[in-house]
């Protein structure tokens, strides 16, 4: 067995492989104090119980439409394997927040391998307390000060990363000026933003950077827009919603880029590619295309290499 001193751990949310795992995913998610920010853990547990009970069956129907599992696990496993082939001296692995492999299992594996230093890479381009902070806290708590830890900062400004996004945008359309480009970000409750979460600010900056890059390269979309998808529950979430945005483009062509995700998941494969596609069809949108995330591409592997300073 090869010996390593250093590990790179990719952190993400996870996703269900079965209906039981969907229950686990939702239960862990709504018991996360960074997601449901009520102070009392008992109250959180009770709210989580009722949300899971009311949401499980309808959410499962969505997963059934994409084959009964989230694509996030297989693609992340493939990225891990490719990175292990790329790096001679760093052991690459993953820890998920709401479904296995959990941080506790990952920490045990790293201890057994004699790893001393860990680099954590949250697979979220923009920072949010609900994603980045939650995953980092989870891993750091599980690691019990066992390793020297380094954290890779949010990378939405990284040029290589953004070049990869531009390449994907351009490869999906022949004439950019016929298409309205919508950057679709996962939504967030407004209350979390009002309490200081920088996610909206990072997303706005990211859209500005990509818009400038497109302009510099001479790619002129008919319009460039930002909208938020995946609202859950009755509270006010970030706006405009993707539904409202799509209504602006009746009888026109639309290209969607899922700007808050690195790896394709149920929100891209079901929500964007099936659910909103039907909405677009009803609105008589002439063409509706959804871009792929950077996933396990060579370009994203190179971005990671650069983020590690190599
Ligand atoms: C209060 C609820 C939620 C917040 C806040 C939230 C933030 C958030 N989530 C992602 C990325 C993903 N979310 C995914 C699924 C998902 N998210 C929520 C709720 C909140 N997310 C739920 C209930 C679900 C499950 C599906 C459903 O029932 O609608 C996924 C998909 C995972 C998969 O199964 O493939 C991702 C990825 C981000 C980036 C984010 C904040 C910025
Ligand atoms: Fe989510
Ligand atoms: Fe959703």
TrEMBL record:
<keyword id="KW-0350">Heme biosynthesis</keyword>
<dbReference type="GO" id="GO:0004325">
    <property type="term" value="F:ferrochelatase activity"/>
</dbReference>
<dbReference type="GO" id="GO:0005737">
    <property type="term" value="C:cytoplasm"/>
</dbReference>
<dbReference type="InterPro" id="IPR001015">
    <property type="entry name" value="Ferrochelatase"/>
</dbReference>
<dbReference type="InterPro" id="IPR019772">
    <property type="entry name" value="Ferrochelatase_AS"/>
</dbReference>
<dbReference type="GO" id="GO:0046872">
    <property type="term" value="F:metal ion binding"/>
</dbReference>
<comment type="function">
    <text>Catalyzes the ferrous insertion into protoporphyrin IX.</text>
</comment>
<dbReference type="GO" id="GO:0006783">
    <property type="term" value="P:heme biosynthetic process"/>
</dbReference>
<dbReference type="InterPro" id="IPR033644">
    <property type="entry name" value="Ferrochelatase_C"/>
</dbReference>
<comment type="pathway">
    <text>Porphyrin-containing compound metabolism; protoheme biosynthesis; protoheme from protoporphyrin-IX: step 1/1.</text>
</comment>
<keyword id="KW-0408">Iron</keyword>
<protein>
    <recommendedName>
        <fullName>Ferrochelatase</fullName>
        <ecNumber>4.98.1.1</ecNumber>
    </recommendedName>
</protein>
<comment type="similarity">
    <text>Belongs to the ferrochelatase family.</text>
</comment>
<dbReference type="InterPro" id="IPR033659">
    <property type="entry name" value="Ferrochelatase_N"/>
</dbReference>
<feature type="binding site">
    <location>
        <position position="267"/>
    </location>
    <ligand>
        <name>Fe(2+)</name>
    </ligand>
</feature>
<keyword id="KW-0627">Porphyrin biosynthesis</keyword>
<keyword id="KW-0456">Lyase</keyword>
<keyword id="KW-0963">Cytoplasm</keyword>
<dbReference type="Pfam" id="PF00762">
    <property type="entry name" value="Ferrochelatase"/>
</dbReference>
<feature type="binding site">
    <location>
        <position position="186"/>
    </location>
    <ligand>
        <name>Fe(2+)</name>
    </ligand>
</feature>
<keyword id="KW-0479">Metal-binding</keyword>
């Amino acid at each position: 067995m090869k010996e390593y001193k250093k590990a790179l751990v990719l952190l993400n949310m996870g996703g269900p492989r079965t209906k039981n795992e969907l229950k686990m995913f939702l239960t862990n998610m709504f018991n996360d104090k960074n997601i449901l920010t009520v102070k009392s853990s008992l109250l959180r547990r009770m709210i989580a119980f009722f949300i899971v009970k009311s949401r499980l069956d309808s959410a499962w129907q969505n997963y059934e439409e994409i084959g009964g599992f989230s694509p996030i696990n297989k693609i992340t496993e493939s990225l891990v394997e490719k990175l292990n082939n790329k790096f001679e001296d760093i052991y690459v692995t993953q820890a998920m927040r709401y479904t296995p492999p959990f941080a506790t299992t990952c920490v045990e594996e790293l201890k057994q391998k004699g790893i001393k230093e860990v680099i954590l890479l949250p697979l979220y381009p923009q920072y949010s307390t609900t994603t980045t902070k939650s995953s980092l806290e989870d891993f750091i708590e599980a690691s019990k000060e066992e390793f020297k830890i380094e954290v890779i900062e949010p990378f939405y400004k990284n040029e290589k990363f953004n070049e990869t996004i531009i390449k994907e945008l351009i490869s999906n359309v022949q004439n950019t000026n016929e298409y309205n480009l919508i950057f679709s970000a996962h939504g967030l409750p407004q209350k979390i933003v009002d309490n200081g979460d920088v996610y909206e600010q990072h997303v706005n900056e990211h859209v500005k950077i990509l818009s400038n890059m497109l302009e510099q390269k001479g790619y002129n979309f008919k319009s460039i827009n930002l909208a938020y998808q995946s609202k859950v529950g009755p509270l006010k979430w970030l706006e405009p919603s993707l539904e409202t945005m799509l209504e602006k483009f009746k009888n026109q062509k639309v290209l969607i880029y899922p700007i808050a995700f690195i790896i394709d998941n149920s929100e891209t494969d079901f929500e964007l590619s099936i659910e909103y596609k039907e909405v677009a069809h009803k609105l008589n949108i002439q063409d509706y295309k959804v871009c792929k995330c950077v996933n396990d591409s060579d370009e994203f592997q190179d971005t990671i290499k650069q983020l590690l300073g190599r």
